[in-house]
Write a structure and sequence with these properties.
Layout: H1 2-12, H2 16-38, H3 41-58, H4 69-87, H5 107-124, H6 129-140, H7 145-152, H8 156-179
Helix pairs in contact: 1-2, 2-3, 2-4, 2-6, 3-4, 4-7, 5-8, 6-8, 7-8
């Protein structure tokens, strides 16, 4: 954490190397979060770049708190996703790209995995926005509960309860879908 704080302090002084390191350390996590939320890899790359452009423009006003720098980036990313989805005239369809899924030599496994991912993506869309957010941060971005709480502005108990209800709801949806 201490080295991250010094990187942030240097970046606030317009140190390009420091901001570059922050970019490298956080790009993949922010990209995965956005890609999961919007379901389109190409647009997720563009939005991720926009997140870092906004961060660069406003880093001088960033105030260090006892949470990782990435929490601030996730808030920017969340706002970008909300704006993006608002601008869409219809709900985007989920495009699951082979680049995101795990490649295997067995084509039947690839098809099965793609179908499973599509079913999961469809089921996730049936959850509340808060449930989608907590699952994206916990499992796609692999954030610990405390960090998710910081990003979402809630206490850890609320995040644990929200995660539990989201997993239960997802399980119910997947069971219903499997029976169809």
């Amino acid at each position: 954490m201490h080295s991250e704080q010094s990187l942030v302090d240097r970046a606030k002084q317009y140190d390009q190397e420091a901001f570059g390191k922050l970019y490298e350390e956080n790009f993949d996590k922010i990209f995965r979060y956005i890609a999961l939320k919007i379901g389109n890899q190409m647009e997720a790359e563009d939005l991720t770049q926009q997140v870092f452009m906004k961060a660069l423009k406003s880093i001088s006003s960033y105030k260090w708190k006892e949470v990782p720098f990435s929490a601030w980036l996730y808030k920017i990313a969340h706002n970008q996703v909300v704006d993006y989805l608002r601008k869409k005239t219809r709900q985007p369809t989920t495009e699951l790209n082979e680049d995101i899924t795990v490649a295997e030599d067995n084509p039947y496994k690839n098809v099965e995995l793609k179908v499973d991912m599509e079913q999961l993506a469809g089921a996730l869309k049936k959850l509340t926005p808060l449930q989608q957010e907590v699952l994206a941060l916990r499992f796609s971005c692999e954030m610990p509960i405390a960090q998710v709480a910081g990003v979402m502005g809630k206490n850890e108990g609320a995040i644990k309860a929200l995660q539990h209800s989201a997993v239960q709801a997802l399980r119910r949806i997947m069971v219903v879908n499997a029976g169809e």
